[in-house]
Amino acid sequence: MKSQSAEESRIAQLCVEHGLKMTGQRRVIARVLSDADDHPDVEELYRRASALDSRISVATVYRTVRLLEEKGILERRDFGGGRARYEATEGGRHHYHLIDVDNGKVIEFEDPEHEELMRRVAERLGFDFVSMRLELFGKKRPQSQKAAKPATRSSKKGSAE
Amino acid sequence: MKSQSAEESRIAQLCVEHGLKMTGQRRVIARVLSDADDHPDVEELYRRASALDSRISVATVYRTVRLLEEKGILERRDFGGGRARYEATEGGRHHYHLIDVDNGKVIEFEDPEHEELMRRVAERLGFDFVSMRLELFGKKRPQSQKAAKPATRSSKKGSAE
DNA sequence: CTATATGCAAAGATTTTGCGGCGAA
DNA sequence: TTCGCCGCAAAATCTTTGCATATAG
Q1: How is the cofactor bound (chains A, B) (predicted)?
Q2: By the CB < 8 Å criterion, does B111 face chain A?
């Protein structure tokens, strides 16, 4: 969802700043991550990366997301379903996730005062705030339309939201 | 959290209320869960349950926690490390978790106004609040000795907390 | 040139499931 | 008696790793 240009993607730049070698594969994965505005799991990242360059293996995707997570460039999410999902770390404001318990859809929302609140909590407990994870689960309020689909717990091929 | 008596554990009672058969194994697992004041993973639950009754298999533990989670009796947590951890759903106030990024220790904290805040967020987005998950990651502040010591307990490396 | 990365496949780790037998209600 | 539950082990997932080769810096 960002610059489709030929220049380095935002995440590729971060990789360089962190002293990582920019191989072809890594550059492609970085671009996929930079362009994503959802929360793809490894399988989905692999699919998207493969579409751009077929010389990429899943192992590399796993190694890359792991590395980027360690560097703080990526954040891992768990929305249930057993697979880790990733999204780029944001610089300033964070956003959180509301998961529709009926269909697993993820809605992002912001809450500016939230992080400040958590910083204070951390401080009160004697910690420096590093990051946070907030997931809200809700049921769509039945005001206007469609009946909720059964809460399918085993979405094998959900890909991303 | 601690009725070591011969009567049904709190969770066992909930099982009955939900129409589940109370087999010997299930009763033991229910007791282990009722007595736990940490966040055991399946392996740890299996260990504790086995100590009370050796005729229990891991498969049953997996099946049980899954069932109880579906019934809303248990909540699954993900503190990183790849394994799901469980804790009993609380009736009234909720507590949240602060994870020490340096050693993985988990500290519980409360924040009464928090749930109300989240209820309002959900409402604003057109949802009814179902539940939430909040994990805060922090680094222990080295400086001020007077920093409030966490009034909660923490854990060990391997199995639970 | 050397430290990193990668592919591939095998190994790990965690969780689920098929099936025959058992037991709670 | 009936239907749910259990143990066992195989299988399904998801993720990591050993090793030989390739390549960025």
Answers
A1: Binds 1 Mn(2+) or Fe(2+) ion per subunit.
A2: yes
